[in-house]
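ok so for the tutorial part 2 we go from a plain amino acid sequence to predicted structure tokens. step 1 is just haveing the sequence, like this:
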Amino acid sequence: MDNIVDHESYFKQKANAASKCAISSHIKITAVLCQLAYSASAESLNECFQMSTTTANGSPKRFCSAVIDLFGNEYLCAPTKSDIERLLHHKKNIKVWPLLATFCYL
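step 2 — the prediction. this is what the tokens look like for a chain of 106 residues:
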């Protein structure tokens, strides 16, 4: 988590307009992980994490960009032909083209 916070200043805890500490780094990153893991909507995070919809909407993109920047060369790789064939075989009844487009983008 420290790597993400150091790389992306958006996740650093700052003072808000009323000079009070704004939402913490831990809460922002936990909320992002909930969004990504459970497809939670930005609106649902307001109740659980006291996070505005605007903050919740911007966080996943910034988080994913930071992860790709920091760990992409080491951990992310393009899908192989066998990966694509396996996905198509197992998911032939589901639209997987957006999923494949996402893989190809990385």
